[in-house]
């Protein structure tokens, strides 16, 4: 077991290095880098100000920047060094868990992640608990009533919900419940007067705001877990040990919950670590944009658009590392849930 864990940990290093190297190489060929973005914003700022000079650089940005000033800007962003040197410097920072500073927001990447994380946690955790809390009992009920009208109707509803994209459902919910009926707010996680509310009022206001975004994200996640639970239950029910348990005189409830359910949950439980950890970083770009939620999904999108490379590479490094560790934990969960599994 320990040899397997050590081997998996060692294999994470080339995987992580390959992801960062590939992304870094692609970035070098993407037009409109941070220097060009800076100059374009400076030029636009001059145009909007009627030609007023703001710090000297903006005025020259409208007429072209002299080579000396351009060299200073490149040095500011670290582009005065060769690409291999910049890559090695980045790896050294990441080895110390220093994710760098944003080019355009003048904040550490860690600080930006901490600012955006509460929104993604709110969406991800609610989606996780509601999905599993409904899908697993629904899958069990479908397995017990396999082939019945209940099974057919719920399968149809689950698959229809799975086929509807989350952002399409979000638009429909906003138009109907946020626009026409005005039952729910259109944006944000809290109201403007949230600080003035009582504790009960704050909780109610938060739940009022989170209802539509979570509904948009949850509906599509029902199908996979519910159908996986149903199929696992049906597979276990057909096995020989179930017939033996029934022959010994056990009631159907004892057979179902004492034997079948425990074994059928193995593929579900082993997915818990990845799903739970992923809930903290489940930033959905479309949902966050649609409901004006400033989370990790929107941060990643804006960083790519603005060519904010420290944020792009820093978040990529962090999320990839978390994903690799979570995958290892998920594999080890198999041994914890089913002692018959041996990695040796």
Q: What is the H/E order?
A: HHHHHHHHHHHHHHHHH
What is Rg? 26 Å
By DSSP (H or I, 4+ residues per run), the number of helices equals 17
Strand fraction band?
under 5%
Question: In terms of per-residue confidence, which ranges show pLDDT below 50 for 5 or more consecutive residues?
Answer: 46-63
What is the share of helical residues?
A: over 70%
Number of strands: 0
How would you characterize the largest beta sheet?
A: none
Shape: globular
Mean pLDDT: 79
Q: Could you tell me how far the N terminus lies from the C terminus, measured between alpha carbons in angstroms?
A: 7 Å
- Which class best fits the helix and strand makeup? mainly alpha
What does the model show?
74% of the residues lie in helices and 0% in strands. Helix 6 packs across helix 9 and helix 6 runs antiparallel to helix 14.
Write the layout of secondary structure elements.
Elements: H1 2-28, H2 34-48, H3 57-63, H4 67-77, H5 83-95, H6 109-144, H7 149-163, H8 166-180, H9 199-218, H10 222-237, H11 240-247, H12 252-264, H13 266-269, H14 272-280, H15 285-290, H16 296-305, H17 309-337
Provide a brief overview of the structure.
The chain is 74% helix and 0% strand. The chain has 344 residues and is mostly helical. It starts with a helix and ends in a 7-residue tail after the last helix.
